[in-house]
Specification:
MetI-like fold
């Protein structure tokens, strides 16, 4: 028997592909190095950050991390951020899910107009709504409280959640609803027992985006909750530069404690974020 030798074809790499990978590598290198530079300087004294900023911290100093919790009470700010961002996510998913259920499963007059209004509201910058929202917050007497930031962030993220969830729910077959009604389900049971479990990937994607946006919302935090007892962690960073402007080691530590946990969480949930980019396609 004659042995048949498979002929290997030479691998051809297109110049365009090489160029794309070079650009992506350079972008990733600059991003990773910036994060490494911050973390590395967090283990140095303030004078070493100024004089030897680009050297490795072979003799790490932990005083910056001790001062971060004792001197500026970064743990309290972490707790405030978790309370406000977590509450925002829960409210957005609750009201956004119910609104998405109505828009995706019911046909009524003005439905397309509501979708158009929702799309148009995404074009309105947050800066344009600060004055009326702040007046409402003052009238409700919730300035410098948890609700003073939770309510504006909930309202600001509702549109995104409604569009994402409505787009996913519109793909669910109507036969499931008919079977549920035959079994005796009402509208609330249909939403909680059937539509919500099926739409769980879309709810997870919306929750991740809303939490990250709420956690990083410095603009709203500086306006609605500037009191130290309810100050979120992003607002704390802006105040370190004024109160402890010369302590660059403490500033690097605060930035590291703010950003690194989010990056670690992102590594574990990135597949859900990638799903969220496609599962929210809206069918008008």
């Amino acid at each position: 028997m004659q042995s048949v030798q498979s002929v290997k074809k030479p691998i051809r790499i297109k110049p365009g592909v090489v160029f794309i990978y070079v650009i992506l590598f350079g972008w990733a290198l600059t991003t990773i190095y910036s994060m490494f530079w911050i973390v590395n300087n967090s283990f140095k004294l303030s004078r070493d950050v100024m004089n030897q900023s680009f050297t490795l911290a072979f003799d790490p100093v932990m005083d910056n991390y001790t001062n971060a919790f004792d001197r500026i009470n970064i743990g309290k700010s972490y707790l405030n951020s978790l309370i406000m961002s977590g509450s925002t996510v829960l409210l957005v998913l609750l009201f956004g899910g119910l609104a998405a259920y109505v828009l995706s499963r019911f046909q009524f007059r003005g439905r397309r107009a509501l979708f158009s209004i929702l799309y148009a509201s995404l074009l309105i910058p947050a800066f344009a709504t600060v004055v009326p929202v702040y007046e409402l917050v003052i009238k409700w007497k919730i300035v410098n409280t948890y609700l003073g930031l939770i309510f504006p962030q909930t309202a600001g993220n509702l549109t995104f959640a409604i569009l994402v969830l409505a787009g996913y729910m519109s793909t669910i077959p109507k036969e499931l609803e008919e079977a549920a009604f035959i079994d005796g389900c009402n509208r609330w049971s249909l939403f909680t027992r059937i539509l919500f479990p099926i739409s769980r990937p879309a709810f997870a994607s919306a929750a991740i985006f809303v939490f990250l946006w709420s956690y990083n919302d410095l603009f709203s935090a500086l306006i609605f909750v500037n009191k130290e007892t309810v100050r979120p962690i992003v607002a704390l960073l802006s105040e370190i530069s004024s109160q402890y402007g010369t302590d660059f080691g403490l500033m690097a530590t605060a930035v590291s404690l703010t950003v690194v946990p989010v990056l670690i969480i992102y590594l574990f949930i990135q597949k859900y974020i990638e799903k969220g980019l496609t599962e929210g396609a809206v069918k008008g």
